[in-house]
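Shift notes (night). Ran phytol kinase while the centrifuge was going.
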Amino acid sequence: MEQLPANKAALLAVLGWAAREATSVAQALQQPQQQPPRPGPSAGASDEELLRLLQLVNATLAPLAVLAEVKLHNVELGRAVARTQLPQALARLLATLCPPGFRCCGAACGGGIGSRGSGSRGSAGVFSGAGIEARLDVAVDIVTLVASLWNVFEQVPELAACMTDSRLVESVSAALLRAQAAECGLEQQQRGGGAGAGPSTARAGGGGSGGSCYGAWLRGSKRAKQLWPVLDAMLYNVVAEAAPGLPPRKWLVAALQPRESLTLSHCRAALAGPAIQLLLGRVLVAETNRCLVEAQAAVEEAAGAGGSAAGSSRMGAAAAAGAAAPGLHQQRWHALSECFRSGTLPLPRNRSSAADFLMEVVEVAGVVWDFMVSGPRLPRLGQQPANVFFGGDPAAEAVRKVMGGVATPEEETAVAAAEAQLPPLHPPSYTAVQVYEMTHAALTAALAYAPAEAECLSAPSLLVRLVMELPPRQAAARLPGLWRTLSCALPRLACGADDGNAFQGPFWMRFGVSRSQCTRSLLYHLGLLLQLQLSPGPAAAAQPNTGSAGAASAAARAAGSPAAPSGAAAPDPGPDFSLRCALRGGLLPAIEALLRRLLGSTAAVALAGPQQAAGFMDAALQSAYTVDHLLRTSGVWPAVLAQGPPQQVASLVRTLGKALTVVGDTFHALRQRPQLLEPAMQLLSAVSGTDKGQRALFDVLSALLEQARCMTDQVLILQRRPLARATVGMAGGWHDRAHRLPVNDSLGPDGFTLRADWVASAGGRPSADTAAAHQQRVLADWAVLQWYPEITRQTDRDSPTYVYSAFARSLLMFMACRVLWPALRENLMASDAAAVELAAAIAPPADAAANAAGWRRFLLHDLDALGWTERVLARTAASTELKAGERGSWGLFGLTVLAVSQEGGGPEACDAAAGSTSVAAASVPLQTGAAAACNSGMRRQQQEQQRTLLQHVAALLGGAGLALCGNPACRSLEGDSEAGLMASSAPVGRQQGGGGGGGHIKTCSRCRAVRYCCGACQLQHWATGGHKEACAGAAGVSGSAGGGQSPGR
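Came back to this:
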């Protein structure tokens, strides 16, 4: 058929006439048989006539749906639909085809499609007429047309009002629900119910059971297989047409565009009806239960087949979840009667299992409910959120202050008044708690059993926002389970990168922007969730039971005071409740897995073509966003160092260092290939992506080092004080500045300043001489060792265009000040009598001089700070873009480094960790105990000190430490964690293939002391890494491949 305006008008005219005629015929067939037929065109109506009209409706709906998808014709078609009031006619047709109390198949005869029955209308309403299959086919075709029409609201605003007034979306949903709940006349006859019997009160199967007409339609109809795809498209288009991710309480959203403001109320009204909400909840819960039942069946099948021990263990977890299906079934059927609880949708062809399909369903539910549902209160956070997400809202500043807990009473009153004017915070069908429970149960089941490549984004975003908006007691009870679920969902943000035709798959392309931009909102919400403030009572009451220590901590929190660790002399504040739940729930391994999945695969193929290069650059930016929102702007990084599981923190630190190296080197290689970089940049620009991944990751890691320095330095003064000469005697106040965190403050986002008091109160500044303080110092020094050499290398190579050299200068300046601090303090005391008295009141740490010597050795020997400073200053002096103040800062920096090189008052630290491959030994040069003098008279004492310190660090890491690849230049991001890269249960030299990197581990066949994650690292370390000269077993042995033997050979 030619797609001409005249043909469109003809199609609309035919469809309108057929819909009205079918409505009249269906109404006539519903009249009780005892009454004479009404006069008019429908007199003597038959099932055959209704069936022919429904077939005509289907025949005209299909081409109209196609036309609505064609941009050349859809605007004109949308205007014509609004003028003809077609949505109202279709809504009336659906209401007549599936009225309340609808029963399929005439009770006196077979019914079926085209059957003619003489059934009578009983108390529940028994109607004869065309079978349920024809009615449902029409409903599916109407959904298809509706999904297409919602795409043209931007050009046809009057269509939005027409669709909303007609309640067509609600009518479609009601028809589908009534069809599922319909009683079958044939079933009633077989049960002996007779022609006029009412619906059964004990429905074992329900509307979607195997023997019902609805179930038969789901199994046999071609249109039934299209039901979920077109429902998905309709729901998504309604939300996307307004403003995706814009909940009723818009506390975290940018200003609306004019067209979004016009259509917002219409889109929300279209999805607020009880039928569409019940249908969505019914599908979600039914698919959740099907997933759990299938998992349990798989467990039973595996148990019957006698699976392996590993398989039995894995299936045991599935059995536990599957056994809970009946309980979930009863708990999750919110607002749904028994007749809706059976039957599931056909599995789409692109889905491999029920769990895979459930992931898609829960994502659609997340999109809709994120648009429709808000909790009853504004979140309360540890600090004010950035104003970048509050643009255009006149009450933004007051809302930010209320959320950050710093609002005045007047501002509190103004925000409360604005809250009272909000639209309904949830549809009538479900409350925020019910939506949370259904979505969380479904997402948890999907994450447990769906394929590893299944993506999820909207459902986790919905859960994070809702739990922040719940009352404190309700939020506290749900946080532990939520963080476990989020930790499973986070690594999946790396899925869907490539479908073979584009650098990111269709899941992310549906959002219209790059994956890094899609995921940024969720990451920002997660960062806010880490700052969530709960009243002490509920948070403590909801704490998991961790024995006597946990009970003591809970009691302390409930009393409003921090719990003291065992053997501690004073109480020590722990991290906030949400952070504790996150650490217990596996947040750190989840972050590490996400980073390794993002960069491990994309960096390896980044030079293969523009698509791959664009994919890598977007993955690098997403990695930077992950670290920025979850660890930097949330302010929890110092608390993570102090309170996190040591091995998890150490493994994450190592992965971040590798990520920085891989990102920097791959970007450098891409810049050498402009013929590859330019088309990749065009691909990124088309989806709002950028090539700033290297710069962003460099900045974020520099900021984390600054936060750790700020909190671990025992001379930190939290209160702002003017830089006065006398403060140099105050426990090292020499480095206190108006901006305590200059790197963090310069990164923003705009309007955001990290509050050092929040960082400390969240557990980032543990009391001195406690286990947490010791762990924080060890792991902070480990981060310096892993990150700072690469920061200086990239600064030397890529600044000032691609990285910001001032950040490296700022960090190096603080390390230099640590070296010079004892001398500065002594000089000040010698020249200022007031400083002597002040210094006597606040004595410096006893090991300050030894620690300063350790930092001096790290700067001068490990980093070659003199050579690096010389090169950077030469480049800076030749620059014509620097201002006078910046030149002065660089000049002062150069003098400071020169002073460090001339400082000889303190003893040197021993090179105890040279060639080491463990966290414990690698941390020694920056620890006070390892900074003892290395002269011949104290060698034995120093070795004993090193042995003692290594024992302490090994105990800190659980007695096992963190095994690292013996090649210091290792860049492998294989596997989900650094700890798993070298994991192997077999003895050294006898490793077998298995999890982590155990199947690839190599051991030097000469010294048998150094292990590698792969043969490439072994060869590189032997050839260029220095092991050939240092190997204890290579003395007197010739050859060029001393470590060539693989384990077990």
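The first strand starts at residue 103 and ends at 104. Residues 1-28+47-104+127-189 form one domain.
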